Sequence to fold (188 residues):
Amino acid sequence: MKHVKIPQDRIGVLIGEGGETMREIEAEAEVRLDIDSENGSVAVETVGDPVRGLKGPEIVRAIGRGFPPEEALQLLQDDMILFDLVDIDAAARNTNDMKRKKGRLIGEGGRTRELMEELSGANVVIYGSTLGIIGTPPQVDAVRSAAEMLLDGAPHGAVYSFLEERHNEMKHQGMQYHRYPGSGEEQV
Fold:
């Protein structure tokens, strides 16, 4: 049994309307969730396939870090889908610096976060003092690198160029290595 602590304001999202989301996670990940809404503690107990059960705590953590349940459940689709966090607070000197760095990651009107998502193919959420990423290892790596560049003060233009370069590399590799015989379409 694993214990995961999530913010108070994300408990409702984890449970869902009438417990719908919680039941879906329990069924899909083959786990049992015991949610303590007083302190935000969630006990995740595997009740079925142990491999699927390993993803249960990750799904709960992803929802706790701001992902919608349907994006968090993508972790079950494939063993190659990862959940990663970038700690913005660790890169900041104080509260004001933290707000500034978070603003750099979000960008004007959310454009930087959107571009990270579009060009990497990963799901990206900025919540509290973390940037959460759900995607394949190359996607997660691209977003993590871009976020670290921005946190280190790199100009947005340079980061966008880096993301476009990685996007083209992933696209090129996808066409080279993931063309399934007889399918007639490319898998990227």
Remarks:
- DSSP finds nine helices and six strands in the chain.
- The first helix runs from residue 11 to 15.
- The longest strand covers residues 31-36.
- The mean pLDDT is 91.
